[in-house]
Specification:
Layout (H helix, E strand, L loop, with lengths): L3 H8 L4 H16 L4 E5 L4 H10 L14 E8 L2 E2 L7 H13 L1 E3 L19 E4 L27 E3 L6 H7 L4 H7 L12 E3 L24 E2 L2 E2 L3 H11 L9 H13 L10 H7 L1
Antiparallel strand pairs: 1-2, 2-3, 2-5, 4-5, 6-7, 8-9
Helix pairs in contact: 2-4, 3-8, 5-6
Amino acid sequence: MYYDKRNKAALAELAPNTQKAARQWYDYLVKNGIEVLIYDARRTEAEQRANVNSGASQTMYSYHLVGQALDFVPIKDGKALWGGYNASNIQKAIKEAQRIGFTWGGDWDSDGNQRDETFIDSPHLQYNYKGYGSDKVLASSTPVSKPASSASSKTHRVVAGDTLSELAVKYKTTVANLKAWNNLKDADINIGWTLNVAKPAAPVKASSAAIIAFPGDALYRTQDKSKMKQINIERIQRAVGAPVTGKFDAATEKAVEAYQKRKKLAVDGVVGKDTWNMLF
């Protein structure tokens, strides 16, 4: 699989039962030589809100938020085929995902029901499990106890009653650090968020291998005058889930920043070589 490392990293973000089902599907892809890139899995609330604000997503009630969905794109000859979901091998892959228990966004309308032409989300596979947010622990006949928390933990899942002040004490740090490590403007936190409770690792360097070679100069918006070709803008917009306008507008820049944050890249809204190679 051309993007095996990135695909497995995305699968690791999923909730337990969804991850188990997704790995079963991925094994099918590998066995049958069906190339895909799983480019999105779990999202933070901030990322989803940015998608909704940009029009790339329809709702804050997204299964990505609870780790029960993934987005993928077909790959052929090292290139992403955004229009390739009707190919026979991809349709076989989708049918296998449905057999395992996923629903496919290509069958949806705006209400998530029977397909029409108003809302088709072909990259999207969703695992309902026992309902929204139900996939928290692997099914077991006995309760699964929570591991004891410790100051060495790197992340914390917010539960009812949590505050930044209490978490600062618990993890032996400061509120200021927690806000900085999580890009928080204030002390408000929501149930279900995953917070960094230790200093995150330095931004990762993306792989030098890319489906589409980096076109050269950094790609960014300067006074609404793009410094990139329209085809590259559209590629970026599809990859980050922004409306495909062919212009590197504010919505695109915001979606790029959300993507960079999720992938632990430098968050600047600029599509430089590292961001480009992670995207493609």
